[in-house]
Amino acid sequence: MIMDDQSRLTYLTRHYYELQGIRTAPMWLAFLAMQLDQNSIYSKTWIKDLLVTLVMFLMIFVSWLASRFYRRRFGWLDPTWITLPTNLFYWSIVLCFLIWSLYALILLQFFGSLPYWLTIIWISPLFNEENPPIRRIYFALAGTVVISSTLFIQLTHRNNTLILVIQCVVLLALGVADHLLLMSLCTPPREDAHA
């Protein structure tokens, strides 16, 4: 789907803050570093606490730099950030999963639904028909990777750290992909360009 200038502008103003994926990248990198640091040589509590504090400050600083970059490069809009999908199929999935999770939690004492809940929440752009097909495709691929890896780990009784590492990597990749989509939408292709 190729957007004309009007639909491109409308889409950008509605989804401007969602597409600023570099703002969230430090958070996923920090979580990833903390998960990978579980079995490192820094096993003393005060050193680990100091490293976590430094990582948090670095995360806040890099996120602040990213917000300045977006403001200087692309401008600023009134924050209308959260766009909930209006797709009935998406809300049916949410309702069915809520019922299944409550059943599993109350009767089966199963607490492993969190990765699925997180996945259902952040793949909501897949069900928004306003999104370009490329954005819907990479959200579908990311959701498939996280759900299948979580299911595999739960069926084989592996360590939960791997689930968190996979989710951090996927969310980092989604942030970069959204940033690249924003870059491509803000620079419309020239009609007189020759390849």
What does this structure look like?
This protein has helices at 5-15, 25-36, 45-74, 88-107, 114-122, 133-156, 161-186. The chain has 195 residues and is mainly alpha-helical. α2 runs antiparallel to α3, α2 packs antiparallel against α7 (161-186) and α6 (133-156) runs antiparallel to α7 (161-186). Helix content is 68%, strand content 0%. The chain starts with a helix and ends in a 9-residue tail after the last helix. The chain has one domain (5-186). The mean pLDDT is 76.
A few lines on this structure:
The protein is mainly α. The protein has seven helices and no strands. It has helices at residues 5-15, 25-36, 45-74, 88-107, 114-122, 133-156, 161-186.
Low-confidence parts, pLDDT < 50 over ≥5 residues?
A: none
Separate helix tally: 7
Whole-Å distance between the termini?
A: 21 Å
Overall 3D shape: flat
Helix and strand sequence: HHHHHHH
Query: What's the helical proportion of residues?
Result: 55-70%
What is the topology?
Elements: H1 5-15, H2 25-36, H3 45-74, H4 88-107, H5 114-122, H6 133-156, H7 161-186
Notable characteristics:
flat; mainly alpha
